[in-house]
Amino acid sequence: MAMAIALRPVQACSDTSAPARGTCIRAPPRAALVATAAARRLGPNVAEPTRPENRAHTISVVIPVYEGEHTLAPLVAEIAALTSPRTTRAGHRYAVAEVLLVYDHGPDRSDRVLRDLAQRHAFVRPVWLSRNFGAHAATLAGMASSGSDWIVTLNETGEHDPADLGDLLDLAMAERAQLVYARPTNPPPEGFWRRITSRLGAWFLTRVLSAGDLARFHNYRLVLGEIGRNAAAYCGSEVYLDVALGWVVGRRAYCPVRIRGQHRPHSARSFQSRLRYYWRLVLSAGPGPLRLVRLLGLFLLGAGLALGLYRLATSMLVDWSPSTWLPVTVASLLGTGTILFAIGVIAEYVDAAVRAAMGKPLYLIVADPAQGPLHRTVEPPGS
User: Fold this and answer.
1) Which domain holds residue 171?
2) Residue 262, CA distances (Å) to 15, 39, 73, 279 in order
3) pLDDT in tens, 122-163
């Protein structure tokens, strides 16, 4: 006798750490693959979330590794003290559930250090990339592989103090912020020329491109787990991480922290590398430069019209001999202004196509916020 078996369609859940909640999104194939892979990679130390609202927050620490041979061991040792549940100053309980070390094929022997740390610590999970993709891609790979309530990104250099995790979490809970950036209270430990280029880049983003939020981002960040995993799934290859997070984050905050000295000499980042870094920011910021071109076109159009009206008025009211340069100048201003304005209008259409190619989602479905980490109650004293 033939039997009919009904198969339910498979959907990619928006929170890979809580598939039982039934909140799923219709993700594109790449996002679905990333979500499924992240769910399969959940380590045994990441427990399934329970229903009590006052349970401890779990945190996944993501560290891109390029030259961490001499800095990873002391950094992981500091994080190891945070793997047991503890209470923040505001009374929120949290614990680091996993440390994701994303190997980005650097010039030193960081791979040996990753294997040694994974054998010594159950919470350390190496993530192996096939080749060098850069810190941006390595961070996204670690976020996609995480499985905790929150995701924290740190540098491998040791300049970010893991002890500040509690302060970032307190600010996120107080402000109901899905994303918290560190705001350094002291000058960064970097060379003179790198500091100058960083300030020039921040000024250009703030004043020229009107992208002040990009100028205030920091590599030390705390983001809600499901938001970070979805951003990692949708983020395109040419999109900066913080731009992708800005697409889906509703509220962000900035926590004052003190940046420590690095555990290694400053890396000699080439001028070409810095240029590519800021060029990616410019492209991710949208059509800001082309909008400036449109404004310039409007200015030239206005100047051409004003000069033409002035020529017409003087020829009618004053006995003024005609000159050849003025009509040519008016025509040039009007023609150039029209062309530049048309380029600015075309830029808006190009921006819409580029953002779609970058993977900007039209919407993002998340779990019920009232049952998420941002709405957990403070742990009663002595419990």
Assistant:
1) 14-286+360-375
2) 34, 34, 14, 26
3) 999 999 999 998 888 899 999 999 999 999 999 998 889 999
